[in-house]
Amino acid sequence: MTTLHRPRKPAPAPAMRYATEATATVAVAAEDAAAYGQAARFQRVFESAYGTDAQRELWVSFSGKKKPSRGPLLFDRGQAAELAGHPVPARVIDEWFAASGLERRKDLQIALNLTPSMLSRKGGGDKELDPSVTERMLRHSDLLVRAAEVFGEDGPAWMTRPHPLLDGKTPLEFASNEFGAERVREILTAIEYGGAV
Predict the structure, then answer these.
(1) Which residues pair with 73 in a beta bridge?
(2) pLDDT tens, 18-44?
(3) What pLDDT does residue 4 have?
(4) Residues 32-37: contacts with CB within 8 Å, 24+ apart?
């Protein structure tokens, strides 16, 4: 008696499997590098603004390493809450814009809720801006680092494109308050890990 066997699908060639894993690893490494670079640039901005008050890192690694270069970043909300209550020197606005990776001055105005006349009136220097500007800088810094974790160097561009789940607004516009920012974080997490939004 003859037994019939179903032909088995050949297993993927090991080289192909490793190439796919290597490509995924390279992509993750690039996104990690973008996120860590973004976090370091923002950290320097806040250290420039607040000196020793901002010496504690705003972004830390889940691994607990002091200067990690890979893996998810965790925003230190306690440190951010301490800084958010202080006015920010106007000179820091241009530093923050340069660190953000945003390309248009209009995006800076949207993120920080500053009109062009307010920006020119403040003029830079050590004139202080309202603590609400500090809070918006911290909120958008957190979101831009998170977007870099998901999209790599394209994170700032993603933040400036209208999104259907945000009623056609850009994530930058939608995050004008903490409730909107939380919605943007949910979308970024769903994009990164898959799932319902």
Answers:
(1) 61
(2) 444 444 444 557 778 888 888 888 888
(3) 44
(4) 32/69, 32/70, 32/71, 32/149, 33/69, 33/152, 34/148, 34/149, 34/151, 34/152, 34/153, 34/155, 35/73, 35/145, 35/146, 35/148, 35/149, 35/152, 35/155, 36/68, 36/69, 36/73, 37/148
pLDDT 10s digits, 82-118:
888 889 888 899 999 999 999 998 999 999 998 887 7
Tokens of 51: 């000196």
DSSP H stretches of helix in the chain: 14-50, 77-84, 92-100, 105-112, 116-122, 131-151, 155-159, 171-174, 178-193
How many angstroms separate the Cα of 59 from the Cα of each of 3, 63, 93, 114? 62, 12, 20, 26
- Going 8 to 14 to 15 to 21, the CA torsion angle's sign is positive
Contact 128, 89 (CB under 8 A): yes
